[in-house]
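Recall that a protein's primary structure is simply its ordered list of amino acids. Everything else, from secondary elements to tertiary packing, is in principle encoded there. The following example makes that idea concrete.
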Amino acid sequence: MTKILVIDDDQVNRETLEMFLLEKGFEVYTSGRSDEGIKVVHEKKPDIVILDIWLRGMDSLEALRKIKEAEPDISVIMITSYYHREATISAMKLGAYDYIYKPIDVDELEITVEKVASNRWVRNRLRNLTEDNQTHHKQKEGLEMTELKADLTVLKGKEQVTQQASEDVMEEFALKRVPDH
């Protein structure tokens, strides 16, 4: 189940988002302050954080930075009542996934959250396939190495047999060449 943390100092907005996301089947945590939200990130490890750009307390861009440092794979969706170009650009450079403007259109939010969840699923699946492929490759290399060692052992054995046979032939040849006197 996808876990979502909503960090917004507007209690009505926070509770509305919580009810909507719970109704959609997500596991939801909320916080009214960014410093408390960062604690939730460390404790609950959500998949998605919905972060209001204008919060009391810690600067939300600093909160975004700390969230991404703590959990780089968390997708952060920024929400704001005001368009602020510099803040938007800064947030995107810091790793925000998307921006949604208030009042929040729940259809837009649902589409964005589903897109994030889908992208996370694909990323996780790709990571698992890559790990499986690497494990398979290492196992195959291990088998090949074992086969090479076995082949080397067989060759060394054949070399010893050949050496012994060669010595026997040389000895027999030497005996035949020695004249009987």
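Residues 24 and 110 are 8 Å apart (CA to CA). The mean pLDDT is 84.
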